[in-house]
Amino acid sequence: MSTLDPLIYTFTVACEPEHAFETWTNRIDRWWPKNHSLSGERNPSIAIEGRVGGRIVERASDGVEYEWGRITTWEPPNKLAYTWYAGSTPDKPTDVELTFSEDGGKTTVRLVSSGWERFDDGGRLRDGNDQGWGAAVAAYGDFLAVGG
Fold first, then answer.
1. DSSP states of 41-102 as a string?
2. Over residues 28-57, mean pLDDT
3. Is the Cα torsion angle 143, 90, 100, 12 positive or negative in sign?
4. Which positions ≥6 away from 133 have C-beta within 8 Å?
5. Separation between Cα atoms, residue 15 and residue 103, nearest integer Å
6. pLDDT at 1
7. If we measure between CA atoms, which residue out of 76, 59, 77 comes closest to residue 68?
8. How many CA atoms lie within 13 A of 52 on its CB side?
9. Left (φ > 0), alpha (ψ -120 to 50) or beta: where does 111 sit?
10. Which residues contact 19 (CB under 8 A, 6 or more apart)?
11. CB atoms within 10 A of CB 118
């Protein structure tokens, strides 16, 4: 595997695509790992503005906003894509694409994080994102598993 290869996570959750999409987007504040913030706060507010061009934003308790990315595709309940620059800058984003596919009363979610060729850091940012996305995917799945 190359340091330029996309990070790909495929997993199944026990709900319909509508609920899986809604939970990822409109309920992100309830499942996102609390130690994954730019502000350094343990309990920031996180929101996704549900439209193309909408922001993914963290709001700290003092009101300061930290923009994490921008929505590039908004096709509920099947597809969501965004630029992602939490850990980099808006002029050097990575790309994240999620698909939500019905699978016999469950949903298969596929997350692809790509764009590592924009960085000349020996894979450091990719490795950090691999750990971060792994934790986020696990937190999302755990939240849904307990009725979220």
1. -SS-EEEE--STT-EEEEE-TTS-EEEEEEEEEEETTTEEEEEEEEEEETTEEEEEEEEEEE
2. 94
3. negative
4. 7, 9, 111, 113
5. 9
6. 67
7. 59
8. 5
9. beta
10. 107, 144
11. 15
Q: What is the pTM of this model?
A: 0.94
User: Which H helix or E strand runs over 9?
Assistant: strand 7-13
Residue 7: closest CA among 133, 119, 112: 112
Residue 51 near residue 30 (C-beta atoms within 8 A): no
% of the chain surpassing 90 pLDDT? 85
Q: Which of 39-43, 75-79, 119-123, 124-128 has the highest mean pLDDT?
A: 75-79
Task: State how beta strands 106-114 and 92-103 pair.
Answer: antiparallel
Q: Residue 70: left if φ>0, alpha if ψ -120 to 50, beta else—which one?
A: beta
Tally the residues of the chain: 148
In angstroms, rounded to a whole number, what is the distance separating the alpha carbons of residues 119 and 135? 22
| Backbone φ, ψ for residue 110 (5° rounding) | -125, 120
3-state secondary structure of 131: helix
